[in-house]
From TrEMBL:
Chief location category: membrane
Superkingdom of origin organism: Bacteria
Location in the cell: Cell membrane
Transmembrane regions listed in the UniProt entry: 7-26, 38-65, 72-93, 105-124, 144-166, 172-191
Keywords: Cell membrane, Membrane, Transmembrane, Transmembrane helix
Organism: Paenibacillus lactis
UniProt-recorded name of the protein: Uncharacterized membrane-anchored protein YitT (DUF2179 family)
InterPro entries the record matches: UPF0750_membrane, YitT
Membrane-topology descriptor: Multi-pass membrane protein
Amino acid sequence: MLSFRKHVIIVIGSFLIAMGTNFFLVPQKVLDGGVIGIALIANYVFDLHIGFVIILCSVPIFIAAWVLNREIFYNSLSGMLISSFVIDLLSPYQGDVLRVFAPGAIPSAMIGGALIGTGLGLMLRNDASTGGTDLLAHFLSKYVPLNVGIIILLMDAVIIGIGGAVLSGNTFVNSIFTILSGGVATGLCTLKHGHRRTRRL
C-alpha cells in the first residue's frame, strides 16, 4: 500500500500535470510525449476525454506490469488513475484560465511541458509514477539492446511525429519545446536522487 505522504505527492503532481495539459497544451493543440501525447491526439481528432484515453491506453501496459513486476504496478497505478481523473476534472476550466492568461504557442508549449515535467518529477522523486510509456520502455529494455531513456525518446518522437502528420507541422515543432522543457523540469526535480529520465505518461 502507498503511504499517505506518497498519495499527497501524487495528487499535487497530478494537478500540475492537469494544469499543464488543459491550460497550455490543449488550447494551442500542442502534444506531449508518451500516453498523454496519444490521448491529446485522440482529443484533437475525435474530441475524446484525455483522461479516459490515458486509462484506456494504459490497460495493456498495466496488465503486463501486474504479470512482470508487481512493485512497479502498485507504485504506478494510483498515479495513472488520479492524474487521469484530475486532467478530466480541470478540463471545463480551460476557458476561464484563457481569459486571464493566454500566451502564444511556443511559450504555452514550454510552460505546459514544465508543469507536466515538474508533476512527474515530484512523483518520481518520491518513488511513484504515472506508468504509461515509462513502464513499456522498462519492459522493452529487457528485450532490445537500448537504454530506457533512449526507448522513451524514440517513442516520444514517433508520437509527436504522428501527431504532426495528422494535425500540422506547427504542432510537431511546438511539441518539441514541450518535450524539452518537460525533460529539463523532470531532471531538475529528480537530480539529487539520481533518477534516470523516465518522465512520460
